[in-house]
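batch_manifest entry 22 of 60
target: Molybdopterin molybdenumtransferase
source organism: Streptomyces smaragdinus
requested by: lab member K.T.
priority: normal
notes from requester: please return C-alpha cells only, no post-processing; we will run our own comparison against the previous entry in this batch. if the run fails, retry once and flag.
--- input ---
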Amino acid sequence: MTALHEPATRRHTELSWPLARALAAGAAAPLPATAVPLRRARGLALARPLPGADGELLPAGTVLTPAALGLAASTGHDTLTVHGRPLVAVLITGNRPALRRTPPPGRPRDATGPVLRGLIDWAGGRALPATHLPDGVRPLADALVRAARDTDAIAVYGASSPGPADRLGPALDSLGAQVVVDGVACRPGRPQLLARLRCGTPVVGLPGDPYAAPAAGVTLLAPLLAALAGRTPPAPRYVRLDTAVGAHRADTRLVPVTSRGARVVAVGHDRPGLPWAAALGDALAVVPPGGAELVELIELPR
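--- output ---
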C-alpha cells in the first residue's frame, strides 16, 4: 500500500483562463506513434505528414476524418502512422449517484457521467467505466495510484472545491504530486485542478456541478487529451455576439451560445446543477474580464 505523506495546508491560487488552458495543452507529449490500417485510423491523428506525389497532402496532427481516409486510400496508402487514443480513468467521489430514473431526495442522479464520457471521446480519448469512491482522502489516493498503472490520464469528478470538501488536493499532496493548476478564474468552473503524479500520469480535477462540467472540461481536460492524442489545436475563431452578455470584472465567463444563420446568440438557461444551457448550445463564448467586442468561440462536444 502506498504510504501517505502529511499533506500541507493548501493555498488555492487561481490562474487566468487563457493561461490555465495553455498549461493543460502543454502538460503532456503525444502518445507513441504506431502504424494502423486505414479501417482503424478514423478519429486518430497523423503522427507524420501524409505524403503524395506532389509533396505533403496532410500535416502531422491532422485528425483523420472519412474524407482524409479517402484521400489516403486514393493516393495508395494502406496503413497510416498515427498517435493512439489516450486511455482515461474516471473517478467519481462522494455519494454514489443514481444511474436510472429520478433518485430519492438526498441522492444525486449521474448527470456528469454522460458529459464526461462524451467529452473524452470528442477530445480524442477513451474513457474507462467510471469508478465510484467513498468520501475521504485515503480512498481517493489509493484509487489514483491504481488508475495510474494502466491509463494515460485520470479525470476526477468532485472533491476539488476549496475548503472541507477538498479531498483531491490533499490526496495529491500525500502522493507527492506536482500541482500545475489549482483553480481557474472562470465562471462556471472555478474549482478545477491539473496535476502530475510522480509516475508522470496527469490528473484533472473537475467540479461536481453538472452545470460547470462542460465549461471545466473544455478548459483543462480537452486540451490535455488533445495533446496526448497528438491533435493540432484548431485555429481560434472570434465572433461578435448578437445578445448582450454581462462581463465579470475579474473572471472569464464561459457562456453557451448557438449559431442562427450569421448570428451568434446566448441560449440562456444558466442554472447551477443542470447542464441545460450547454445542451442547447453548440459552443462556449469566452467573455474575458471586462468584456470585448469580439469573443473567442470554443466548440462544445456534439
